[in-house]
Structures are given as structure tokens and as C-alpha cells.
Amino acid sequence: MELEQALRTAVGQLRDAGVPSPRADAELLAAHLLSVSRGRVLAMALAGAPTPEGYEELVARRAQRIPLQHLTGIAYFRHLELAVGPGVFIPRPETEVLAQLAIDRARAVLAEQGSVRVVDLGTGSGAIAASVASEVPGSEVFAVELSDEAFPWAQRNTAPHGVTLLAEDLRTALATQGGTFDIVVSNPPYIPPGAIPRDPEVRDHDPELALYGGGDDGLDLPRAVIATGARLLVSGGYLALEHAEVQAPSMLELFAQSGRWRDVIGHRDLNDADRVTAAYLAETAVPAGSTWKNGPRDRTL
User: Fold this and answer.
1) How much is the average pLDDT of 125-131?
2) Is 164 annotated as a binding residue?
3) Considering the entire predicted model, what is its pTM?
């Protein structure tokens, strides 16, 4: 079969299977087998190129809702090409906003004091830690991951960028380094136990350890990140934390209840959804009910 016909057949097969982006996935699977860009695949199809060996099998597996990234072994995040597979959470484009906040703050601290220490709690694939280390030369970046399955993926993705990777629980991580970090960033598990994801790619393939945050509200691990952040940060240090859109009000309350944070600000992702809450560790206790100011697009406490 010529490639053009194979692509048309694949698009129909993936569409019938409910794959959200059937055309893109069909082309990307061909690009993976041919080791060319997606645009080159289209040019080859127009030129009457043959279908690469194994293409129909790969499309059939994608139709079973096996994640595209598991089939290609690659996930793209910001400027990085990350190795991923079973056992590790696949980084999402929405999380790039969280990484950008950490990168922007790291650059500012580095310019101000000549050094900056950053830690990514629950790093998963290592996407955020590797992004900070690669985009902020001179930064000292740590990453923490508890999962035995995810750790090798994080190691593979962070090692080229000089990240210090630790096999630790984010609740107790870096026990001897309290008060030494300028930035704590985290995309922890935060899904409540009853909110089972609908997409088979997430429900059946992302590890449960990376999805469910614990407690009735799914916020046990985000609470732990806030507590660990308060322990690890220097006075005035910056914490940025990802969460579900519906959890935004709860996150503001969690920061407020601790009495340790100032300038608590919510940030929206590329889909205009409340995705990240960030704050600075206060030098003194913050009175309850304080009002914080920020730009019109962000929610504030």
C-alpha cells in the first residue's frame, strides 16, 4: 500500500476508535517509523512513497488507546525531547506554564545574587527539572521522585542537564537542606479518589501514583508540597504548584491557612484554565484574610 492510502486508512481507524487527534497521530506514527518530520511524511505521501514496515501494527495499537508517546517513546516538552514509556506520567503541554514560572523566577534570582537553587518535587519524567536546568545556565537544580518505575525515566531525561536526582518522598525530601532553596516547583498528584479520568490513555496507562493525590479531595500531596516548600525555601523563596482547575479556590485557602505565604497568586494555562498557584515564603507570619494584588488575568487571594 502506498503511504497516502495508508494514512487515509489510519485516520479513519483512529477516528472510529475515539482517538482525539486521529490525523496528527497517523502522521506522527509514520514519521516515527521513517525517522523524518511530520511535514516530510506528507511530502513523501504525495510523491507515492511506500508505507513503512510495521505501520499498520502501530496504528492498531494506537487504536487500542495506547498513548502515542508510549508507541514512539518520545514526549515533547518546551524545547526538550523526553524519553517516556510505561510507568511514568506523560508530561502535558499545560504544565509548560508551571515550568515557565520556575524558569522566569530562576533567571531573576540568578541575575540578582549570582546563584540559584531549585528543586522539583515529584519530578516524574523530569520534564520540569530538565527544562529549568537547560534554560537557566548556572542554576543548581535538584529533582525528587519516589516511584521505582518513574525514576529511570527521570534519570535518563535529567542526567544530560546536570540535575541532581534523588529517590525520595516529597513529604520528607532533602531533610538536611532546609532553608537552602530559592525555588520549589511541583506538579504533584492531585486527582480525588472518585474522579477517575475518562480518557483511556490516562486511566489505563498513566501510573496511579502520579494521578491520585490522596484524601477525599485529592489534596493531601499538594498540602505536603506546601509544607515541604516552607521547610526547604529561604525567606522570600518562591513556590509554584500545579493543580486541577476546580481546585484553585481550595489551593488559595491552603496557602492562606498555613500563615507562611505572601503574594499568593493563581496563574492560568494555555487553555485559560486555573492551573498553578504560586507564592513567596514570608519572613513573618501572614494575617488571615490578607488581600494580594496581581494582574487582571490572574486570580488572587
Assistant:
1) 97
2) no
3) 0.86
